[in-house]
C-alpha cells in the first residue's frame, strides 16, 4: 500500500495540472460540482509529481 496525495480543497483552484502531471491513469478526478480535484487513493502511488506542479500548494503526500 502506498501513501497517497491529499488535496486541500481550500487551496485547490481546479486548474487540473495535477491530472496532466500524474503518470498513473485515473488518480485525479475533476468534479464539476465544486470545480476541484479529488484523489482516487487506491490508484495513487505517492510519487509526488502532482505536488511539484501545483502552483497553489494544494497537494501534499501523506497525512
Automatic annotation (TrEMBL):
It comes from the Bacteria. The keyword Methyltransferase does not apply. PROSITE patterns: 4FE4S_FER_1, 4FE4S_FER_2. Keywords: 4Fe-4S, Electron transport, Iron, Iron-sulfur, Metal-binding, Oxidoreductase, Pyruvate, Repeat, Transport. The keyword Ribosomal protein does not apply. GO terms for molecular function: 4 iron, 4 sulfur cluster binding; metal ion binding; pyruvate synthase activity. This is Pyruvate:ferredoxin oxidoreductase, delta subunit PorD. It comes from Clostridium aceticum.
Amino acid at each position: 500500500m502506498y501513501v497517497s496525495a491529499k488535496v486541500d480543497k481550500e487551496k485547490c483552484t481546479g486548474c487540473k495540472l495535477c491530472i496532466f502531471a500524474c503518470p498513473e491513469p485515473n488518480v485525479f478526478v475533476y468534479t464539476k460540482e465544486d470545480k476541484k480535484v479529488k484523489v482516487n487513493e487506491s490508484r495513487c502511488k505517492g510519487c509526488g509529481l502532482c505536488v511539484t506542479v501545483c502552483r497553489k500548494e494544494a497537494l501534499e503526500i501523506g497525512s
